[in-house]
Amino acid sequence: MGAIGLDLAQFIGQLVGFLILLGLLIFFGYKPVRKMLDERSRRIKESMERAEATKQEYGRAQLEVQEQISEAREQGQSIIAQAKQEAEKLKEKARQEAEQEAQAIINKTRAELARERDKIVGDLRREFADMVILAAEKVISETLDRKGHRKLIEEALKESDTFRKK
Amino acid sequence: MPRVTVGKGYGQAALHGEVVTALALDDDDKEWLSRQLEEMVGRKVIIDVKVDPSIVGGFRAKIGDMLIDGSVRSRLETLRQSLAEPGK
């Protein structure tokens, strides 16, 4: 040892001192640091777990919201479809009622027109008949002579006799 | 077609008839018409003739309870009805 200039006793003393210092450091420094590091690591782990749980919770909530949105959309579409059907039914009913009403008005108008036409035709026929009869009366009265009068009586008697024999 | 209504209860005595014509009848025509009516009813008929221009022509007679309407007025009324109401 002397060849390299190292004093063995000094060396051993320094080594012992170092080991003692190392032991002290381990005993008084490493453990608290380790404990602190473990505590921090635990807190970080817990934070990460909470974050993970929160993330999962968020994911579930998001899915739930998505499902609710989908369900609400389906319900909305169903309500819209139902409303459309109801609207179509109402529209059809209103159309049929309007058609029936229009047909009733048409029928009533036709009947009134037919009555009016029949009345006019009847009036015209009666007026025509009156005019014909009046003209015939006038012609017969103005042209009837004794001979013609007797002929009319003969015809009447002949027809009366024919009538009686039936 | 003249309207003739025949009732019941004839006797054998002469019947009195009321005849209405549009123009006045002379005696020959009255005699002739009486004979025609007698042939029709099968009895002696004595007629009383009145003039009513409103029957237009022909005659109307009431003999006993038999009525004969051979007037032009009656025919014209029938014609008027057939013209005014052809369906009836």
What layout of secondary structure does this protein have?
The complex is a heterodimer of chains A (166) and B (88).
Chain A: H1 8-143, H2 146-165
Chain B: E1 3-5, E2 15-21, H1 27-41, E3 45-51, E4 58-63, E5 66-71, H2 72-84
Keyword list:
heterodimer, A: 166 residues, 0% strand, B: Glutaredoxin, 5 strands
The string of secondary-structure elements of chain B, in order, is: EEHEEEH
Discrete helix count of chain B: 2
Largest interface: A-B, 27 and 32 residues
Helicity level of chain A: over 70%
What's the helix count of chain A? Answer: 2
Number of distinct beta strands of chain A? 0
Major beta sheet summary of chain B? 5 strands, mixed
Assign the CATH topology of chain B: Glutaredoxin
Using only C-alpha atoms, the radius of gyration of chain B works out to 14 Å
- Amino- and carboxy-terminal Cα gap of chain A: 185 Å
Description of the molecule:
The complex is a heterodimer of chains A (166) and B (88). Chain A is rod-shaped. Chain A has one domain (2-165). Chain A has helices spanning 8-143, 146-165. Chain A is built from two helices and no strands. Chain A is mostly helical. The model of chain A has no long low-confidence stretch (mean pLDDT 90). In chain B, a hairpin with a 2-residue loop joins strand 4 (58-63) and strand 5. Chain B starts with a strand and ends with a helix. In chain B, 32% of the residues lie in helices and 33% in strands. Chain B has 88 residues and is α+β, with helices and mostly antiparallel strands. Chain B has a single domain (3-84), classed as Glutaredoxin (3-Layer(aba) Sandwich). The radius of gyration of chain B is 14 Å and the shape is elongated. Chain B has helices at 27-41, 72-84; strands at 3-5, 15-21, 45-51, 58-63, 66-71. Chain B is built from two helices and five strands, in the order ββαβββα. In chain B, strands 1-5-4-2-3 form a five-stranded mixed beta sheet.
